[in-house]
Amino acid sequence: MMMAALLAAAALLACAGAALIPEPEVQIQVLEKPFLCKRKTKYGDMLLVHFEGFLQSNGTRFHSTYVDNNGQPVWFTLGIREVIKGWDKGLKDMCVGEKRKITVPSALAYGKEGKGKIPPDSTLIFDIKLMEIRNGPRSHESFQEMDLNDDWKLSKEEVRAYLKAEFEKHGSTVNESDHEVLLESIFEKEDEDSDGYISAREFTYVHDEL
Ligand SMILES: *[C@@H]1O[C@H](CO)[C@@H](O)[C@H](O)[C@H]1NC(C)=O
Ligand SMILES: *[C@@H]1O[C@H](CO)[C@@H](O)[C@H](O)[C@H]1NC(C)=O
Ligand SMILES: [Ca+2]
Ligand SMILES: [Ca+2]
Predict the structure, then answer these.
(1) For residue 186, what is the DSSP state?
(2) Which band of pLDDT confidence, cut at 50, 70 and 90, is reported for residue 185?
(3) Cα 28 to chain center, whole Å?
(4) 35: DSSP letter
(5) What is the largest CA-CA distance in the chain?
(6) Atom of ligand 1 minimally distant from the CA of 58
(7) Which end of the chain is more exposed for a tag (fewer CB within 10 A), N or C?
(8) How far apart are the CA of 176 and the centre of ligand 2, in A?
(9) Helix-, strand-, coil-residue percentages of the chain, each rounded to 5
(10) pLDDT of 26-84, one tens digit each?
(11) Phi, then psi, of 163 in degrees rounded to 5
(12) Ligand 2: which atom is nearest the Cα of residue 178?
């Protein structure tokens, strides 16, 4: 009887204990918000950011894009674990021009291992400024942009037109025969049911190699 009561009490305490141990969270502090905000970041978007990273323990700056990266901001895709979890969690719903200070516990950064100048179990502080947002390669917006006749599938003509525009946007000259080769290889990979179109489902499905 006594034993059963003790066990029940222990089980209760264990539950209470688990509930009391907080899930690691990113603390977000908005330092500056632009007056106009047309679009907010969401998973799958590509973000261009300037940032400085500090160790919380003693304030040492371990990286700064203003200094270390030839002063160049960096691109990454939000929400796909391209960066530490703390960034994926802490940079959602952000406007271009917005500045945030995020405090990232070690479990959502480099954990028990640490990395380079970052010792094991370090809480990190980042000052981040969002410079630009672009549609990620597999976003709904990219698909709509490519699907000129809104039939929810991409024909070769539509993908060809998109490729041409993209290359021209980046200042490359368009070599027709190279493009046809590229186009064929895209369809070979993406058009899984070989019906000559890339459907919305075929497009959105993330292949292993991407
Ligand atoms: C801060 O901590 C890091 C890692 O423990 C160490 O390498 C660095 O020398 C420290 N800097 C100062 C100014 O104490
Ligand atoms: C396009 O590229 C192909 C193969 O790379 C090359 O043989 C051809 O001369 C190029 N055409 C033009 C117009 O540059
Ligand atoms: Ca179409
Ligand atoms: Ca297809």
Answers:
(1) H
(2) confident
(3) 17
(4) S
(5) 85
(6) 1
(7) N
(8) 8
(9) 35, 25, 45
(10) 999 999 999 999 899 998 888 999 999 999 999 999 999 999 988 999 998 888 788 99
(11) -60, -45
(12) 2
